[in-house]
């Protein structure tokens, strides 16, 4: 799936408004890029974390000549998937039927089901 496909899917889910879907996606991506570029991270519970990771200066070798080449410090954008996202991809958690996979039902519950290992933990005190 590419950006155009994503916009098409988003527009279908938002009532067919391609302009609104395009603006929503492009503004979301702009916020992520600007926030991470400024050194802050974005955490979306259950989905993942977008952050900037620094890499120290190092010495690399040219594989053809064996010559040492100094590499300056760099920064890269990094995405670390959340536990629910990992569980869905690994097949240990099923996608919910009839509702969004990444919509939280309250600020104190995970994205997925309210069960862990088949046991409902909502009424239990930790």
Automatic annotation (TrEMBL):
<keyword id="KW-0238">DNA-binding</keyword>
<comment type="similarity">
    <text>Belongs to the bacterial histone-like protein family. Long actinobacterial subfamily.</text>
</comment>
<keyword id="KW-0226">DNA condensation</keyword>
<dbReference type="InterPro" id="IPR000119">
    <property type="entry name" value="Hist_DNA-bd"/>
</dbReference>
<dbReference type="GO" id="GO:0003677">
    <property type="term" value="F:DNA binding"/>
</dbReference>
<dbReference type="InterPro" id="IPR010992">
    <property type="entry name" value="IHF-like_DNA-bd_dom_sf"/>
</dbReference>
<feature type="compositionally biased region" description="Polar residues">
    <location>
        <begin position="107"/>
        <end position="116"/>
    </location>
</feature>
<dbReference type="InterPro" id="IPR020816">
    <property type="entry name" value="Histone-like_DNA-bd_CS"/>
</dbReference>
<dbReference type="Pfam" id="PF00216">
    <property type="entry name" value="Bac_DNA_binding"/>
</dbReference>
<feature type="region of interest" description="Disordered">
    <location>
        <begin position="96"/>
        <end position="126"/>
    </location>
</feature>
<protein>
    <recommendedName>
        <fullName>DNA-binding protein HupB</fullName>
        <ecNumber>1.16.3.1</ecNumber>
    </recommendedName>
</protein>
<keyword id="KW-0007">Acetylation</keyword>
């Amino acid at each position: 799936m590419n950006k155009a496909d994503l916009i098409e899917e988003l527009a279908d889910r938002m009532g067919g408004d391609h302009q609104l879907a395009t603006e929503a996606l492009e503004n979301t991506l702009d916020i992520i890029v600007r926030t991470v570029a400024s050194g802050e991270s974005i955490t979306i519970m259950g989905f993942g974390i977008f952050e900037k990771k620094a890499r120290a200066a190092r010495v690399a070798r040219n594989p053809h000549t064996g010559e040492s080449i100094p590499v300056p410090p760099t920064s890269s954008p990094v995405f670390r998937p959340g536990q629910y996202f990992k569980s869905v991809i690994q097949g240990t958690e099923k996608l919910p039927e009839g509702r969004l996979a990444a919509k939280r039902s309250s600020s104190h519950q995970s994205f997925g089901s309210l069960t862990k290992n088949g046991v409902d933990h909502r009424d239990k005190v930790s």
